[in-house]
Design brief:
Layout: E1 4-10, H1 14-25, E2 30-34, H2 47-52, H3 54-72, H4 88-113, E3 116-119, E4 121-125, E5 129-133, E6 139-149, E7 153-155, E8 168-169, E9 183-187, H5 191-202, E10 206-210, H6 222-234, E11 238-240, E12 244-251, E13 254-261, E14 264-270, E15 272-275, E16 279-281, E17 314-316, H7 327-341, E18 355-357, E19 362-367, H8 370-376, E20 380-386, H9 391-395, E21 402-408, E22 414-421, H10 424-436, H11 441-446, H12 456-464
Parallel strand pairs: 1-2, 1-6, 2-3, 6-17, 8-15, 9-10, 9-15, 10-11
Antiparallel strand pairs: 4-5, 5-6, 7-16, 12-13, 13-14, 18-19, 19-22, 20-21, 21-22
Helix pairs in contact: 1-4, 1-7, 3-4, 3-5
C-alpha cells in the first residue's frame, strides 16, 4: 500500500465514504481510514447511519408498522388476519441483513472507484500527515495532499442514567432488543427517542417518553409540532414534558427512574430504558495540538462555509462540524469538499436542507418555521391543507396530518414547508427543489399535479397561501 495520497478521508460514514468516492471519481488518489471492524476483523464501512442509525432504525420502523397494520388496520380493507404475531429475532435478523447488504455495497463501490481502505483510527498531524493506529495497536503514517475529517458523532450519555448495554441502553442498544419490553422508558422526545419509542410501542410495549423541555419538538414549526404530538399521543405514546430525569437504578432486572416536574418528584419502573438525548461530535484525539485545527465551545471542528479548517488543506464534514447532524447534509458537504480540492467552484446551500422524523406518519420540514419568521420580522403568509381532504390519503387510510407552506408576503417566494402526514419525507422534497430554484407559491399553484396523489396536498397548500384552495374552505378571501 502507498503511504502517499492526494486525499485521505478519516471516517467511512455517509460524509466520509461519499467524499472518498467523489474524490476518486475526480481523478484523485484517495484513501479512507475507518476504525470500525466486523466480526472477521475487516473494515466495516457505512458509519453510524448504515450500521446502527438511519438504516436499521427505518427497517425496524417499517417492520413494526406492518405488524401494527396487520393487527389493527387491514380489517378496514376487508382483509381478515387472525391473531398476527411478531417474531422479534426474525425482525432484528432482517434488519441486520439489510445493513450487511448496504455496507458490503460500499466496499464494492470503493473497489470500483479505486479507493484504498485503511483499517484503523486516524489522527491528523501537522503538515497533512495522518497517523493510523490499527486494531492491534500498530501505528503507521500516511502523507496526504489533503485531509477530509468525517469522524461522525456519538450518543450523548447523561450521569443520572448510565448506559449498561442491557437494561439501560443508547440508540444502538435499542436496535438489538430480542423481546418486546412490557414497559419501556425513553429519555428524550427528539427524533431518535420518538422513532425508537414508535417501534416498540407499535409492537405492544407501554412507552413513556420523558422530555426535560417544556416544549414539544421546539425545532419544528409550532403548528406541525402540536399536530404531531396529538397524533403520537393518540397512538399510545405517553409523552411527558418538563420531566427532568434525576436518577436511574437497576433493581432486580427492572429500571427505576426518578424524575422531577413542576408538580414534584416521581418514580417509574421500566423493563428497559433508552437514553436518547442527542449526539455529540466525535472530536476527541482526532488531531494533534500542532495540527492547526481548532474546536468551538461545543466540541465541533471549526470550519468556514466551505468546510475548510484553520489548517491548510484540511477539511471537516458531517456531524463533526456545525449544522444539523443529518446524513444527507454530511454527504453533500463531502461532495463539495472533493470538488473544491479538484479545483471546482462548488458550494452548498445550507438554508435548504430537509429534515425528517420517521414516525408514522412522518414529519418533514425545510426552510423557516413560522416562529422563526416572526422572530426575524419577515412579512409572511401561510397556507395549510389537511390530508383528510385528500382523496388518495383517504383511499389508503393514511389521512392524519397536514401540509403547511410559508411564503414571503411581498415577493411570494417560498420560505418553508412543514408536513406531518403520509410520505412527508418525499413530499417535502418537491418543495426543496422548488425553493432551490427560488420558486413562488404561484409557481407551485400553476404546476399540474397528478390525480389522485398525495402530492396534491402540496399543490393545495400552495393555493391556500393566497386563499385559492379548491378542495377545502379558504382562510382568507381570494385576491
Amino acid at each position: 500500500m502507498s503511504d502517499k495520497f492526494d486525499v485521505v478521508v478519516i471516517g467511512a460514514g455517509p460524509a466520509g465514504y461519499v467524499a472518498a468516492i467523489k474524490a476518486a471519481q475526480l481523478g484523485l488518489n484517495t484513501a479512507c481510514v475507518e476504525q470500525w471492524i466486523d466480526d472477521k476483523g475487516k473494515p466495516r464501512l457505512g458509519g453510524t447511519c448504515l450500521n446502527v442509525g438511519c438504516i436499521p432504525s427505518k427497517a425496524l420502523l417499517d417492520s413494526s408498522y406492518k405488524y401494527h397494520e396487520a393487527k389493527e388496520q387491514l380489517s378496514l380493507h376487508g382483509i381478515s388476519v387472525k391473531d398476527p404475531t411478531i417474531d422479534v429475532p426474525a425482525m432484528i435478523g432482517r434488519k441486520d441483513q439489510i445493513v450487511n447488504q448496504l455496507t458490503t455495497g460500499i466496499t464494492g463501490l470503493f473497489k470500483a472507484n479505486g479507493v484504498t481502505v485503511i483499517q484503523g483510527t486516524g489522527k491528523v498531524l501537522a503538515g497533512t500527515r495522518v497517523q493510523v493506529t490499527d486494531k492491534d495497536g500498530n501505528v503507521s503514517e500516511v502523507q496526504a495532499g489533503n485531509v477530509i475529517i468525517a469522524a461522525g458523532s456519538l450518543p450523548v450519555n447523561i450521569p443520572p442514567a448510565p448506559v449498561d448495554g442491557e437494561h439501560i441502553v443508547d440508540s444502538t442498544g435499542a436496535l438489538e432488543f430480542q423481546a418486546i419490553p412490557e414497559r419501556l422508558g425513553v429519555i428524550g422526545a427528539g427524533v431518535i427517542g420518538l422513532e425508537l419509542g414508535s417501534v416498540w410501542g407499535r409492537l405492544g410495549a407501554e412507552v413513556v417518553v420523558l422530555e426535560a423541555l417544556d416544549e414539544f419538538l421546539p425545532m419544528m414549526d409550532a403548528e406541525i409540532a402540536k399536530e404531531t404530538g396529538k397524533i403520537l399521543k393518540k397512538q399510545g405514546l405517553d409523552i411527558r414534558l418538563g420531566a427532568r430525569v434525576t436518577n436511574a437504578e437497576v433493581k432486580k432486572g427492572k429500571v427505576a427512574v426518578s424524575y422531577s416536574t413542576s408538580a414534584g418528584e416521581h418514580t417509574e419502573v421500566f423493563d428497559k430504558l433508552i437514553v436518547a438525548v442527542g449526539r455529540r461530535p466525535r472530536s476527541e484525539e482526532l488531531f494533534s495540538s500542532d495540527s492547526g485545527i481548532t474546536l468551538d465551545e461545543r466540541g465541533f471542528i471549526f470550519v468556514n462555509d466551505y468546510c475548510e479548517t484553520e489548517a491548510p488543506h484540511v477539511y471537516a464534514v458531517g456531524d463533526v462540524v456545525r449544522g444539523p447532524m443529518l446524513a444527507h447534509k454530511g454527504s453533500e458537504e463531502g461532495v463539495m469538499v472533493a470538488e473544491r480540492i479538484a479545483g471546482k467552484k462548488a458550494q452548498m446551500n445550507y438554508d435548504i436542507i430537509p429534515s425528517v422524523i420517521y414516525t408514522h406518519p412522518e414529519v418533514a420540514a425545510v426552510g423557516k418555521t413560522e416562529q422563526q419568521l416572526k422572530a426575524d420580522g419577515v412579512p409572511y403568509k401561510s397556507g395549510t391543507f389537511p390530508f383528510v381532504a385528500s382523496g388518495r390519503a383517504l383511499a389508503s387510510n393514511e389521512f392524519e396530518g397536514m401540509v403547511k407552506i410559508l411564503a414571503h408576503e411581498e415577493t411570494d417566494r417560498v420560505l418553508g414547508c412543514h408536513i406531518v402526514g403520509p410520505s412527508a419525507a418525499d413530499l417535502v422534497q418537491q418543495v426543496v427543489i422548488a425553493m432551490e430554484f427560488g420558486s413562488s407559491t404561484e409557481d407551485l399553484a400553476m404546476i399540474v399535479f397528478g390525480h389522485p396523489t398525495l402530492s396534491e396536498a402540496v399543490h393545495e397548500a400552495a393555493l391556500a397561501v393566497d386563499g385559492h384552495a379548491i378542495h377545502m374552505p379558504n382562510r382568507k378571501k381570494r385576491k
